[in-house]
Amino acid sequence: MHLLKTLCEISAPAGNEAPLTEFLLRYINENQASWRVQPTVIQGEEWQDCILLVFGEPRTAVFAHLDSIGFTVRYGRQLVRIGGPHAETGYRLVGHDTQGDIACTLAVDDETGELSYEFTRDIDRGTELTFACDFRETVDTVQSCYLDNRLGVWNALRLAETLEHGILVFSCWEEHGGGSVAYLAKYIYEKYGVRQALISDITWVTEGVHAGQGVAISLRDSLIPRRSYVERIRRIAQAAGIPHQLEVEGSGGSDAKELQHSAQPWDWCFVGAPEDNVHSPDEIVDKRDIASMLALYQVLMQEL
């Protein structure tokens, strides 16, 4: 779990994914020689902070978003949410501005719900603040801020070790409305003819999706994927004997939103481990679900 811990410790809220992008590019450069297939790495200013790894003759693309939720400093010590972070008075926040490193405390007004910070000085307006990382590992679980979606990124990086054919897509802005998947999906479809997608992201523990019972295959959230594609994935998972569970939700979304709304005929399915304490400093995931997530992705990228 050392790689996952490192990923969780890197501050990269939506709109400022560059620190994580730079880490991934170094990681890919240092490790790809040991991978089964060395990918074509597509990145640069024309791709903003996104990265594409193209392996062999791809048929399917895996989308994993780099960004996290967080807060932006406004005026008079006010904070504005980035995405949908859970907020409680006393949460520890970290960041950096022109005056130096920041380690402050979140405050929530009991009456208005307005957010602010407590610190020894005023913080530069526009500064991003993220949860302070306290990575905890037991025999059975990992717990930390930003397992959503650093665990999805971890899954993609581990998948890269054995992947022969496919595209790994590291996208931006997912937690705050999206914006990058549209142009990435257009390029992938037009350049490689790929129109099958898996969403390597983290879902929720609910009354119907339980920790420790396997990776969740989502039949729907606020959007509905094409049933025939999802049924193919279900059959592959069943035939492989990989523990999994089915998710049905009426809200929520992922990078799939931009695929669903794109001008290209993309099929997609969200496949991810469930976590509890969503969007808080204490997100927790069962290691059995992490193992089944990676195992299912390895099989799906061979069979789809």
UniProtKB/TrEMBL annotation:
Presence of keyword Kinase: no
Per the record, a Pfam family?
A: Peptidase_M42
Query: Keywords on this record?
Result: Hydrolase, Metal-binding
Q: Name one GO molecular function term.
A: metal ion binding
Listed Gene3D superfamilies: Zn peptidases
Q: What is this protein called?
A: M20/M25/M40 family metallo-hydrolase
